Amino acid sequence: MIIDVHGHYTTAPAALGQWRDRQIAGLKDPSQAPKASELHISDDDIRETIENNQLRLMRERGSDLTIFSPRASFMAHHIGDFNTSATWAAICNELCYRVSQLFPDHFIPAAMLPQSPGVDPKTCIPELVKCVEEYGNVAINLNPDPSGGHWTSPPLSDHHWYPLYEKMVEYDIPAMIHVSTSCNACFHTTGSHYLNADTTAFMQCLTSDLFKDFPTLKFLIPHGGGAVPYHWGRFRGLAQELKKPLLEEHLLNNIFFDTCVYHQPGIDLLTKVIPVKNILFASEMIGAVRGIDPQTGHYYDDTKRYISATENLNDEERFLVYEGNARRVFTRLDTALKARGL
């Protein structure tokens, strides 16, 4: 199977965005605030947005299954308070669950959390439990910066996050470390904020002993790990200066990287530097980079082409990147597939 571990519902029906606009307007004028029950999205609306977009491209590009979560930039945890985020997360997570029910062979859900700046992460646990136990979610998205580019939260190694980690370990469910919209003019959302966060999350783990406290905790760092593979020598050297173990022992039993890297040299570097067991196929299609590369004539986010073309992987290693690693890291995904005889 070709399993894409990083997909977002970026093509959700327009009614979702319109409801969100009303919710945001209601923060200033409560009379404008909508109820969740006022959002009406039919199964046909969902079918149309998926069949004409993600599913069409999956078929064209040859991928089989996508781990599918709400649109990352729409999480916008900096807006409103916890109640705002809780309502919004519940709506978005239910939509992704409905996608997985309408297209069970092609999508399986991952959840956004109702995070809010300054709010204890344990308040997110009820939504996580619901999504795992009722929706069959196989992953969560964890935002290390709910403030939207101002970085007011403690680092991921801080005990602030431990209640959430304890639940993740209990469910054996990984978190993709994924920030949302930047409201800081210094950081473009997808061009710098996302990649900064990927690099920052890795470094927060490197400087800590988080995985001694949680030996089975698993993080997926997207977008190829930000700057991490390109500066692998820097991180190895910093770990050495900090008297940490070798990175293979210190971090690589718990941290994994996806292939949302949008040119061949980038994938070549990723697959040369990072051990194959830590690389999972992903495209984040119809995401941050949607255009066609004039140098190749193909979509930038058609990452399967790069995996197929790289000389750094043999057939056995490609199997691990495309399927084997995803099933090992996302154990709930593996269980769901085995239940289908796959």
From TrEMBL:
One GO molecular-function entry: carboxy-lyase activity
Stretches assigned to the Amidohydrolase-related domain: 3-330
Gene3D superfamilies in the record: Metal-dependent hydrolases
InterPro entries in UniProt: ACMSD, Amidohydro-rel, Metal_Hydrolase
UniProt entry keywords in alphabetical sequence: Lyase
Entry GO CC: cytoplasm
Membrane spanning residue stretches: none
Pfam families per record: Amidohydro_2
Gene Ontology process terms (BP): secondary metabolic process
KW Transport (keyword) present: no
Name recorded for this polypeptide: 4-oxalmesaconate hydratase
Species the sequence originates in: Lampropedia hyalina DSM 16112
Native organism taxonomy: Bacteria, Pseudomonadati, Pseudomonadota, Betaproteobacteria, Burkholderiales
